């Protein structure tokens, strides 16, 4: 019997839903692909047709959340460059919040700046899309060309630092993360323009 596209999408969504539930309840490292297949009610072979690994499942959730954050932020530019970068990052963090319990080990493996033997294609695509969107924000503020490799690398390092800190930030309303995002984007703006940028106002995630 031929499986319809709708049925495929429903199966894919169910696998991701059950994987997310298990990752949050047990932890990413403690959850096996067999656990996910059983919870989703599919054969392991069927599941691997959709996702070759649990890392791919987790990074698909991350990628979808970041894409939703980009859409939430899209069209909201208009302030200082540092403010827009803050808003862009904050939108992504808000969408990532449901995944926060298991993000640490996933991001460490999939978005690490260190050379890796095996690169997660979904993670690499999410990284590139994030950087492309960041460059669109820069262009809207008069940066006609993309920042050089050094500046882009510094931005990504700052961003990963924010993610790593945020995943384990238990301060009220993640106020410590808000401060780190604010400082990080102003540092980046200073690097690429020689000025701190922004108006010094407070921002909220």
Quickly count the helices: 9
* Termini Cα gap: 48 Å
**Radius of gyration over alpha carbons?**
19 Å
- Can you tell me the overall shape? elongated
| Class from helix and strand fractions | mainly alpha
What profile does the largest beta sheet have? Answer: none
Proportion in helices: 55-70%
**Fraction of residues in β-strands:** under 5%
Write down the overall mean pLDDT: 88
Which CATH-level-2 architecture of the largest domain? Orthogonal Bundle
| Topology-level CATH name of the largest domain | Tetracycline Repressor, domain 2
What is the total tally of β strands?
0
Low-confidence stretches: 195-201
Number of domains: 2
> Class of the largest domain in CATH?
Mainly Alpha
Taken in chain order, the helices and strands follow as: HHHHHHHHH
Topology:
Elements: H1 5-26, H2 33-40, H3 44-50, H4 54-73, H5 81-96, H6 103-110, H7 121-140, H8 149-166, H9 175-193
Helix pairs in contact: 1-2, 1-4, 4-5, 4-6, 4-7, 5-9, 8-9
Written description of the protein model:
The protein has 205 residues and is mostly helical. The protein has two domains: 5-49, Homeodomain-like (Arc Repressor Mutant, subunit A, Orthogonal Bundle), CATH 1.10.10.60; 54-196, Orthogonal Bundle (Tetracycline Repressor, domain 2), CATH 1.10.357. 67% of the residues lie in helices and 0% in strands. It has nine helices and no strands. α4 (54-73) crosses α6 and α8 packs antiparallel against α9 (175-193). The longest helix has 22 residues, at 5-26. The protein starts with a helix and ends in a 12-residue tail after the last helix.
